[in-house]
Amino acid sequence: MAACSAQDTQEISFKEYSVFEVNEFLSAENDEFVGRPTRIVADDNGLYFSDHGFQQITRVNSAGQKQFSFGSQGSGPGEFSNPSSFWVFDDGYMVYDYNSFKFIVYDRNGGLFEETIVKKNPVNPDEFPPNIPLTVHAICPNDLIIPSRGRDGSLFAIANTENGDLKFAGEAVVADVVSYSSDEIDIAYSRGEIPDVMANLLLLASSSSEIYSFQQTTGVLEKYSYDGELIWDKQLNIPTQTNLFEWISRTNQQAGRDNEPYRLFHYAWAIDANEYGVALLLHLPEEEPVTAAWVPADGGEIKLVSFPRLNSEVLGLFGTFTVSPDNSRVFFLNNQDGIIYEAEWPV
Fold it and tell me: Please, what is the angle between helix 244-258 and helix 182-190, to 10°?
């Protein structure tokens, strides 16, 4: 690990680290209990991952040894067909099954406790698409944070599935886009522009008392209370991302001419938070090493941690990550190849 001197960009202080030792922690090729992991969550003594190959949630200890697994594929009680998110709470776990908008709560032993099927998106109950949101973050089993797509001029809403309470928070990047077509999105991308319907895209995370929201098209990180009150906001201005959107714009214009897939306009691949602060897995040009930004809970100096032995080819197109609650380790997931990597988290 190497540390560099601090620098300032538009009155924001950065400190840079490089972590050269990265180890393969688990893989589908070498570990028979690993199928196709899609999401990972670290705890102090190990790691959880959702596995689309075996349709279950699995926990391993710090040595990568399987401790237990729970859940199964299906539509019955305690079963899921597309677990897009899961959360680890002090007294149990919750899985979000995107296909059925079902939230399944398990006890600490993985036994079914209860499940709730939400009939409509509480934030946009009468609109389609998307009636069922792909992005959902849970503060606790009954309190969900759901992107609002600009409704009431907001970025997200805090929804209680038990009593129906709903509170909007944040200031939208653009006004609510009520309707759109895939053709309109393709035209915007082919012109190198951000489609209006994509302008309010968010990454969401939380600690035990705060909510973190990252605006994907502006690079603004915000911290809120559980009541939706803004505590601080920060335009990150990461130096290696200075020309990122210009590069995406040129790439998409060429993709439009060549009939190739478009790139999303976003500044980060994933977000994770703990009691010490919030981390973002940065979207960088392909030649750059995998890099994460760390912002402490007080919004102070940003730490940029690069991993020179990891790049977009090693991590895959839709890689994700998680930081241990004690801030000592970081795990990366290549979900295309079923590989989880482990490294020191030096902040």
Answer: 110
Full DSSP string of 142-190: TEEEEE-TTGGG-SEEEEETTT--EEEES--SS-------HHHHHHHHH
Distance separating alpha carbons of residues 320 and 266, to the nearest angstrom = 14
Q: Which SS3 state, helix, strand or coil, does residue 247 take? A: helix
Of the CA atoms within 13 Å of residue 303, those in its CB half-sphere come to 18
Closest CA to 51 of 65, 41, 61: 41
- pLDDT tens, residue by residue, 290-335: 999 999 999 999 999 999 999 887 887 668 999 999 999 999 999 9
Question: In angstroms, rounded to a whole number, what is the distance separating the alpha carbons of residues 306 and 235?
Answer: 20
Give tens-digit pLDDT for 233-277.
Answer: 999 999 999 999 999 999 999 999 999 999 999 999 999 999 999
Q: What is the pLDDT of residue 11?
A: 61
User: Residue holding tokens 């691949």?
Assistant: 269
Query: Which residues on neighbouring strands pair with residue 86, listed in sequence order?
Result: 95
Both tokens assigned to 236:
């990150």
Can you read off the two tokens belonging to residue 62? Answer: 């710090």
What residues does 137 pair with on adjacent strands? 145
The structure tokens listed for 317 are 């197109």
- Give 290-294's long-range contacts (Cβ < 8 A, gap of 24+): 290/314, 290/315, 290/319, 290/332, 291/240, 292/321, 292/330, 293/236, 293/238, 293/268, 294/347
What's CA 253's distance to the chain center, in Å? 27
